[in-house]
Amino acid sequence: MALRTILEFPDPRLRTRAQPVTRFDAALGTLVADLLETMYGAPGIGLAATQVDVHQRVIVIDVSAEHNQPLVLINPQILAREGEASSEEGCLSVPGIFDEVKRAAKIRLRAQDRTGAPFERDYDDILAVCIQHEIDHLDGKLFVDYLSDLKRERIRKKLEKERRERVSHAAAASPGSARRAY
Ligand code: NI
User: Exactly one of 82, 134, 153, 160 is catalytic; which is it?
Assistant: First the structure.
């Protein structure tokens, strides 16, 4: 297993549309293990392969406090959406920034596990939000795209300034914070 580097907004590689996974082989197993290690290490509650510059439809999520409930979703597809919920989101690719985003409150999801076995399941609350956020990554979309142009530009400038000042990713993400990024 290895930690991978997380791309940060406005890196154009984050705009790549990921391709479906067709081979459930050892390389996929390594990618999943690396994504989990990188997500837990960040720390974050979700990570899409796109964020580590691998353009395959793979996401990992773990919203548990103990980091013992990893959810691995390959080729995830939202079959149905219900209701609306607004919550404060953060993203490991937009470190230190949190803002309200409106999404479906409940989703019906079809995906494959890391062995390729298909399943369908309903999700709500934070898992529904997180899954929608991560699928957006696979489609080259970021949560800041839901904000106003003015806000997004302000965020871009803030992150560029921080990078210039060599503020480390770890410091910007403040691990002690109750806010969680994905
Ligand atoms: Ni994210």
Answer: 134
